[in-house]
Design a protein that fits this description.
The chain has about 280 residues and is of the alpha/beta class. It has a domain of about 180 residues. Helix content is about 55%, strand content about 10%. A 4-stranded mixed beta sheet has the order 1-2-4-3. Helix 2 packs across helix 6, helix 7 packs antiparallel against helix 8 and helix 9 packs parallel to helix 11. It is globular and about 50 Å long. The structure holds zinc ion (ZN). The site of zinc ion has 4 residues, from helix 6 and helix 9.
Length: about 280
């Protein structure tokens, strides 16, 4: 079933409201629990990747990670963060949101550089395909997984790549802009829900100008950066597979239908030097 834009919009406002509230709560609780929060970055934390994996999930995590590292791009991105001069990137597994994943707990230093971030992977990351409307890349894997052309580990590694895409994007986002978004998005959504969903409201126009778009646009843009990185991983991963172009054509159809404004970033990856076929992408 196709989700129509207006319905999607209201749902998304609720969704972004929730996401930003969580971000704000996380910041507040991090500040409160600074002394006892084991994920808090302290002066003794060495930059690089910290894997905080409960024993019961270690085996599956190792499989997902080696799948990600089986590609040149996965290896290069992992190395970049493993030897990062400043950033402590924590990767952990949580049982809530079991088929999903998320990135957050961002911290910046006094120079405005990102110094901490956490990727939380669901404990059943190798299952579940998110909607093609916002996840055109991960969703496209579904028929290939059903046909056993790829395994659940490839799906999990694509989700990990999606999160790496978020980390790369947030690294180039100014801290003051991000903080302003966390602060103003709930206010935007509150007005939106009380003014008859009128995005032309001057108060909303003003907030959107300050924070680089309305909450849905900001959220969409972030998710499509995640998806672009998942596509980069898959390009390497399926490069020599017979179904390579079928997968890319499926991604292309979803991008054209739902993410037309963001097509360029996906087309770039399909056409980039090194790809054997562009599979119809121009
Ligand atoms: Zn995402």
């Amino acid at each position: 079933m196709r989700i129509t834009r207006p319905i999607g919009l209201s749902v998304l406002f609720m969704l972004t409201l929730g996401a930003f509230q969580i971000a704000a709560q996380q910041s507040a609780s991090l500040a409160r629990n600074a002394a006892r929060d084991k994920y808090m970055v302290s002066a003794t934390d060495v930059a690089g990747i910290r894997e905080v994996i409960p024993d019961k999930y270690q085996k599956r995590y190792d499989e997902w990670k080696s799948e990600f590292l089986s590609t040149d791009i996965g290896k290069a991105q992992w190395e970049m963060y493993a030897h990062h001069p400043r950033l402590v990137l924590t990767i952990t597994i949580i049982s809530s949101n079991s088929e999903g994943a998320g990135s957050g707990k961002y911290k910046w230093n006094e120079n405005g550089e990102l110094v901490a971030a956490t990727i939380s992977l669901g404990s059943r990351l190798d299952q579940g395909f998110p909607t093609s409307v916002y996840y055109p890349v991960m969703n496209a894997l579904e028929p290939f997984e059903s046909a056993k052309l790829i395994s659940g580990n490839t799906l999990a590694a694509a989700k990990l790549a999606h999160e790496f895409g978020h980390i790369m994007k947030i690294s180039s986002t100014r801290q003051d802009l991000y903080s302003l978004q966390v602060q103003l998005v709930p206010i935007y959504n509150k007005i939106f829900l009380s003014n008859g969903h009128n995005v032309a409201d001057p108060r909303l126009v003003e907030i959107a100008q300050k924070i680089g778009g309305n909450p849905v646009e900001i959220w969409e843009d972030r998710e499509y950066w995640g998806e672009a990185n998942a596509m980069l991983f898959l390009r390497d991963r399926v490069e020599k597979e017979k179904f390579h172009c079928r997968l890319f054509a499926k991604i292309k159809r979803a991008v054209e239908e739902y993410a037309k404004n963001y097509e360029e970033r996906f087309a770039e990856i399909a056409k980039e030097q090194g790809a054997i076929y562009t599979c119809g992408w121009r």
